Amino acid sequence: MSRSCVRPRQPGVTLPGARVHPAAPPTHEFQLWLPHSAKALNAAALALAEQEKTWFLEWTDAAPGLAMAEVSLEGPAQDWTPQEVTELGLRFLELVAAESGSPAARQA
Predict the structure, then answer these.
(1) Taking the model in full, what pTM does it have?
(2) Could you say which of 4, 58, 67, 106 is the most buried, measured as most Cβ atoms within 10 Å of its Cβ?
């Protein structure tokens, strides 16, 4: 797994603290792991959907302090630029920090 960022099939996509499995996805499907609880991530995903009308995955707890989402990039999602993906991911992480009140999450 990548240790510090998401780069799913698009060079230049970076999301701090994220891991992708497999590290170099051979298809449009992969797992995305973040060092937060699924509860915090799902709350942030709901807030993002309400604010921007964009859904950012559904999360399940994989281990204490680590959540995982199954990703399948289909249709319009494949048209996003690396910059658009990164910007959305960073806004999502800001919402995670706001939802959890965690200074560590804000630095992610």
Answers:
(1) 0.78
(2) 67
